[in-house]
Amino acid sequence: MTASIDHKLRRVLADVLGLKPGQSDAFTKDTGLFGHLPELDSMAVAGLLTELEDRFDIVIDEDEVDGELLETYGALLAFVKAKREAA
Amino acid sequence: MTPHTYPCPLSAGGSVDEYALGFDRGRKERLLVIPALFDEANRMRRFTVEVMRRLDGAGIDCFLPDLPGCNESPQDLALLEPEDWATAMHAAARHFGASKVLAIRGGGLILPPAISGWHYAPVKGANLLKTMLRARVLAAREAGVTESIDGLAAEGLELGLDLAGYPLSGEMLRQLQGLAPAPRAGITVIAHELVGGSPLWLRAEPDEDPIQADALAAVIAMGALA
């Protein structure tokens, strides 16, 4: 399950960022996300969160969304994993 | 591809001309294309027109009407509700003599009655709304203002709300929240998986994908000309 969460999360990010297949495979835990990607405005982040809810069957509260959550790939992965475990 | 107009009925009576993009060579197959809604409409616009270009090449006339209150429409979006959009799409279908319909994403929530066709990548109105509410809360937070989704939603039902740059009435919000794509005889759902690639409505920036346009146009052309 953990491996598939990782795989699915890479896929969602590839979809939102319009990456080529395989390009998100190179993400590591420290790969920077939103602070490093100026094209991700609030609408794109909102779309990402709704898509995460849909694909992982979780509910994300706005209070849980802060700069840290979206700082690195590793932080976002840990968040989604924790959400799935609690679900 | 040429600009056309269609007479859009007004709730107070009478009608006003709204624009539609069209490929009209007087052919037998005539497709009404209902666009995606709100911010998704912008991100899907080029894809939508690219699909129409391919269908034109395949011998199918296509028409993409403006929704009242959007694009070049003379109507005030803040006074409209989804039912007005459905009425407009019905009028456009009749005006252009549409034989089939293709609805994109939220466009499937405002289908005209009694016409067969396709709905690509359906979405619930509630999901569109939640994403826009969320974007507004996130943007406000960046500006140092605290808003909540529930608070905004409640306020919006009373007073209307600006979301993703669209002034939406309380009635628009209320109806959207309850609209969901329902299975309908004659309307074939085309899941995004059939088209393949990464969904264009999710992209942070508007983008295009000729392979996806080829795929969707092929599904429609095979069905329409069968």
Detailed description of the structure:
The complex is a heterodimer of chains A (87) and B (226). Chain A is an all-alpha fold and 87 residues long. Chain A has one domain: ACP-like (Non-ribosomal Peptide Synthetase Peptidyl Carrier Protein, Chain A), CATH 1.10.1200.10. In chain A, 52% of the residues lie in helices and 0% in strands. Chain A has three helices and no strands. Chain A has helices at 2-17, 42-56, 73-86. In chain A, helix 1 (2-17) runs antiparallel to helix 2 (42-56). The longest helix of chain A has 16 residues, at 2-17. The radius of gyration of chain A is 12 Å and the shape is globular. The two termini of chain A are 13 Å apart. With 226 residues, chain B is of the alpha/beta class. Chain B has two domains: 2-123 and 182-225, Alpha/Beta hydrolase fold, catalytic domain (Rossmann fold), CATH 3.40.50.1820; 125-180, no CATH class. Helices cover 40% and strands 20% of the residues of chain B. Chain B is built from seven helices and nine strands, in the order βββαβαββααββαβαα. Chain B has helices at residues 39-57, 82-95, 125-142, 149-159, 170-178, 192-195, 210-225; strands at 2-9, 15-23, 30-34, 61-65, 100-104, 117-120, 161-163, 166-168, 187-190. In chain B, the strands form two sheets. A seven-stranded mixed β-sheet of chain B has the order 1-2-4-3-5-6-9, with helices on both faces. Chain B has a two-stranded antiparallel sheet with strand order 7-8. In chain B, helix 1 (39-57) links the parallel strand 3 (30-34) and strand 4 (61-65). Chain B starts with a strand and ends with a helix. The model of chain B has no long low-confidence stretch (mean pLDDT 95). The chains are: A mainly alpha (87), B alpha/beta (226). The interface between A and B is medium-sized, with 23 and 23 residues.
The CATH architecture term of chain A is: Orthogonal Bundle
Kindly, what is the distance between the CA atoms of the first and last residues of chain B, rounded to a whole number of angstroms? 24 Å
Mean pLDDT of chain A: 86
Shape descriptor of chain A = globular
Query: Into how many domains do the coordinates of chain A divide?
Result: 1
For the record, the CATH class of the largest domain in chain B is Alpha Beta
Oligomer: heterodimer
